[in-house]
Amino acid sequence: MTSTVRTYLGRLLPQLIALTIIIAAISIIFPGFLNLQIQNGRLYGSLVDILNRGAPVVLLAIGMTVVIATKGIDLSVGAVMAICGAVSASLITSGHSLAETLLITLAVGILCGIWNGILVAVLDIQPIIATLVLMVAGRGIAQLITEGAILTFNDPGLIFIGSGSFAGLPMPVVIWLVFGVLVALVVRQTALGMLVEAVGVNREASTLSGVFTPVLLIAAYVLSGLCAAIAGVIAAADIKGADANNAGLWLELDAILAVVVGGTSLLGGRFSIAASVLGAIIIQAINTGILLSGFPPEFNLIIKAAIIVFILVLQSPRFRAAFAFVSIPRVAGKPTEREAK
Amino acid sequence: MKQKYLPLTATILIFLLSYALCVAQYPNMLSTRVIGNLLTDNAFLGIAAVGMTFVILSGGIDLSVGAVIAFTGVFLAVVLEQTGIHPLAAFALVLAITTLFGAVMGAIIHHLEMPAFIVTLAGMFLARGMAFVLSIDSIPIKHPFYATLKSLYFKLPGGGRITLIGGLMLLVFAIGILIAHRTRFGTNVYALGGGTATAKLVGVPVASTTVRIYALSGLLAGLSGIVFSLYTSAGYSLAAVGVELDAITAVVIGGTLLTGGSGFVAGTLVGILIQGLIQTYITFDGTLSSWWTKILIGLLLFAFILLQKGIIRLSRNGRQPA
Amino acid sequence: MQTSSDNILSAVRIEKGFPGTKALDKVDFHLRRGEVHALLGENGAGKSTLIKCLTGAYRRDGGSILLDGAEVDPRDTFDAQRLGIGTVYQEVNLLPNLTVAENLFLGRQPRRFGMVDTRTMNRKARELLAEYELDLDVTRDLASFSVAIQQVVAIARAVDLSGKVLILDEPTASLDAHEVAMLFRIVRRLKARGLGIIFITHFLEQVYEISDRITVLRNGQLVGTRDTSDLSRRDLIAMMIGRELAAEIHSARTEVAEGRLRYRFRNYGRRGRINPFDLDVRAGEVVGIAGLLGSGRTETADVLFGAHRADSGTAEIDGQTVDLSSPRAAIRQKFGFCPEDRKTDGIVGDLSVRENIVLALQARRGWTRPISRAEQNRLADQYIRALDIRTPDREKPIKLLSGGNQQKAILARWLATEPEFLILDEPTRGIDVGAHAEIVRLIESLREKGLSLIVISSEIEELVAYSTRVVVLRDRTHVAELGGDRITAHQIVEAIAAANEREAS
Prior knowledge:
The structure holds three protein chains of three kinds. By secondary structure, chain A is mainly α. In chain A, 70% of the residues lie in helices and 4% in strands. Chain A has a single domain (40-315), classed as Orthogonal Bundle (ABC transporter involved in vitamin B12 uptake, BtuC). In chain A, helix 3 (55-69) runs antiparallel to helix 11. The N and C termini of chain A lie far apart (49 Å). Chain B has a two-stranded antiparallel sheet with strand order 1-4. Chain B has one domain (3-315): ABC transporter involved in vitamin B12 uptake, BtuC, CATH 1.10.3470. Chain B has helices spanning 6-25, 32-41, 43-57, 65-82, 87-111, 116-134, 144-151, 164-182, 184-194, 196-202, 206-232, 243-253, 265-285, 291-317; strands at 139-140, 153-155, 161-163, 234-235. In chain C, the strands form five sheets. A six-stranded mixed sheet of chain C has the order 6-9-10-3-11-12, with helices on both faces. A six-stranded mixed sheet of chain C has the order 18-19-20-15-21-22, sandwiched between helices. Chain C is globular. Chain C starts with 6 loop residues before the first strand and ends with a helix. Classes of the chains: A mainly alpha, B mainly alpha, C alpha/beta. At the A-B interface, helix 6, helix 12, helix 14 and helix 15 of A face helix 6, helix 12 and helix 14 of B.
């Protein structure tokens, strides 16, 4: 058991170190950064802010991790966020109960996931292309629902999801913590995680071993859709309205970046949800840090770019080959002739 | 008819059909004025889409386009405001920067063997970030030379105008078509899209072709940025967000296979025109909401992906016998 | 002894090794001007490796290559092409999305004023192809033509670029009789022009039709070079599959399997892959499948396991009709399948040995019923021990293991599901001698435990050692079945040869 914990922490070590360095650096420049205080039973402080502001990207990154592990990608999550935000706002303003609103909204997210999953798994369309369709059309659908305006609401229940608190923590943080732990548990306590990794590494061999590949692929996109739905509700609740134009805009890129920072390869296979969550928090910490430390926020994107390039170099097959003293060199094409077809 | 012309034909038919439908409802839409505006309004998108067509034909993707356009606009605005450089010199300078920018991305994609998607994503962040660093405000461009350039146009019968930028887009398309079909580089681009491994085996210089493809895309994104700054007379770092998506969409609706290797630069022009037409129609209608543009374009995208999927399947089964 | 001027290409004592195997062991090969020289051998014999060494695709470890009497050292395939050695592969290595003319002139398109002169290029392409009796629209995409025409275009390009030596690697594998005839007319014409042509194929009648001499490789070693006219089919097959070795091994058993008849396949097949066949398999029986490369061995395995759905016939287990339309369906019936191409269809490279071993069992149980980590460890350790899988620990990514150990891990994957019907496609291909013997012993012991096994192998002596029955395939059809004391290397070779001769006459 201790060895499992050790390998688990070992996997997260680079992300933890990176996060520590970033937080340390910010707190040197901005001394008040680490301060936490409790007011009215609720925790306040920059660290809590990071966790709170990062909620949508963390949620998207959870689903994106699983999709990327299957060797896929989901470009539509930002648009799905907008759709789901719009759905929840329009349901609640038209008099549905909070429970109904949430259930239907999540169902819509799942539906979007099924659409993407069918395009990828059944029609065998490249994931980047398949999810592009919903990425383009999705925002239009969201605007159709809100009829172009920012659809505001004042249902206290729905607003609570965005700005309320539970056990001293802001609701968005509670939601992603609970959901993240839930997904990680389901994935790792069942065989789902291993089967997803197997499909991502070698779809053909997995199918021949009896893995029901299409269902797994669809499930991955459904999870991603569900995550986007939750993120969409939080984003809408946060501003007490559904903004079809801006909700979730470009967040798919941040989510992909979070997964990459988390060390999951874009080529599929091994994944860690916890690492992706850390990746998302790292991104948010950088955002917040730059804002607080008086650096112009303009540097934010440049730093993001630098991080990507750094990680790319680390992950690059060439770079790895050059530094793989220990591992066995890849056998370049052993003579395996396939039988004549 | 040759199968490879099928998507292009479909695109052209869809354009003509929808144009006819528009005209049937609003006869005013059949005027050179509308056509001239269609060209002018979509000039920057069209020029960027030509670069995107080459990238996609080679099997890649370039997400940095919109950010490069914004960077170019801000760069021009700042340079023209703060120095005495002539705009033409500034144009040359910014084109050199964006071309180099594209070339570096191409080199990283090839030499680090990383997916174009993530490399150009980094490029997008970097270019947008550089634009922010230059200025976060929208800076108007008041140089008299801009006014001169904007006043140039070619008058069409019927009151329409082909503006300088509209004409420039057509010229870029013409040159793009020539490059695609009349140069060894063009053939190499198609060859890369047909399969990098095979292309290498047949003797295509994969490294230099990849670098040149992304350099071309950078160059055209820069040119698109110049056109955009002429069109808006300003430079703003938040401008042109998502133009890369519109460009990708135009390329796919134009009949180019997103997996690379098949398609036409001319198709992209029609793709641009279809997108523009939908917008024009919605403006003419006045009651229809703008979101229908996105939904319609998404549907078109889906239809074309399915069409191409079907064609690939057909061509696998029905080869011409010996 | 020939003078060097007879030989356009000579390869002397070529050596090439891969980790764990010796792919070529001091192989000599001489190609004369104006001859068609067939290069034969089963899978893994070293044909491809030799060709890749000749064309610079691989760096050889030792030996020299002489072209036109001068020593050459092609660095890569372009270099070889420039020197005069052109290659055409079974899977046409041209770009399907370019036009025929572009494919012919890629990288050397005629230009005028810096622009490609398409008209001149198309004219030259038509002229070039006219030499090959081909009159086609060179402006069409290559993909719109049949594989045969694509082959000819590839040959035209290779000859136009190189012009001394032409290597044809399985060019006829997917062609019909007319197309083969067309291809052979072209080969004869090129031969008359003085080219040296190396022809790799697994169709023996084509070897006899077109080739002047034959060189046979086996297990990376040269078996010999003979004039085609002096070599009987029987002797050739013996050279290829090593009957002289096999003759020394006694048939393992003379008794017929007495187990209960459990599996009945009737009229089972799939159009375009394997013609309908009947097959009965008893409990405690190993049915060996013999046949030359391309005879439908792998296709038989694929259709039995549902990797390709059968489109005719029925399958019965213990008298009950069953559905075997997908791997999952087959696995439900306690089937297991070790595919031929370990790397693409077998191992899940980045996952650990443990995960690879439990994969099929886990897939059958479904994701909601995970195998506990302790149980996984137990299973993995058990099979690592039982099959002697050499790995430092069970968590090592399987891609880092040697071929033999990967194969054993995939076998373990199926054994962990406690299968009753196991299909092994070339289980001993490309693995070292020690692991080879262990796998043969394992097959024996599984049979004794009452499993039914189908084993495909291109090594006859191996089939003889463990099969209780041998089915012989030819041209995607099951043509003969040998049982009891008829299972000898001699009889199997006879059966394959007889089928070939019938075909040839």
